[in-house]
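Below is one record:
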Amino acid sequence: MSDQDKTEDRLIAQLKDMRLKMAEFDAVQKSLNEETSLYREIINKASEAIFIIQDGRIKFVNQTATELTGYSKEEGLASQAIETFVHPDDRAMVNQYHIRRQQGDNAPFLYDFRFVSKDGTVKWVEMSSALIMWEGRPAGLCLATDITKRKRADEALRNSEEKFRNLFETANDAIFLSDGPKFIECNAKALKLFGCEEERDIVGHSPTEFSPEKQPDGLNSAESAVNYLNAVLNSGPQIFYWKHCRKDGSLFDAEVSINALTLNGDAYFLGIVRDITERKQVEM
């Protein structure tokens, strides 16, 4: 084989190798383009609002961020100062966290603040932030979730708990919360009715400790109490008469109302005790 033929063969081999590498490159490029399109789709359809913030200004947003802010990308959202959307009362906190994060100091990863949209609507958001590099410089990657409904629900629950607590403490009747074997909470009226000065005189004790041996139904107090609690669990709220004794040993007649309730997945009994001694004396 001549030198010329050998040279042509080498060129042909190199050309084949080049074409093979170009085909491999095209396949990799296609795969990268598909991955990029997938990531872009995931970002734009994410339920969290995504912001990239650099030098205090928004550099990138996804579709959810435009919905949260009330701006569109066409309106120049990606050039707005981020503090524009932070409630004035929360700006100092958010700025402090941002500065600490930029400086590499410890700052809360997750925090809540009030977010002000374009039309002035105030929403609560939960923000998670991380330090990243963007176009060769440090920036903040922030994911914001609208938690306004959750905040309102929490506030409603707190208000409800406060109202219940006020009713519990100011009720004219003695109120007890029990897990069955023992009292776990009582109000001020219960202390007065049982002649006790401190909660620890009642809380942690068995209801039968404040009862004589026998009850109006003819059973001893322990057996009678179990029967009534089972009746509550099987048939619902129960109202019955009971003999109670105070801390000093004196007895009084009571009308007892018991209902079952569930708190944090656990079963409890709510009891309301009313002293009817005078009424019983009148009936006699």
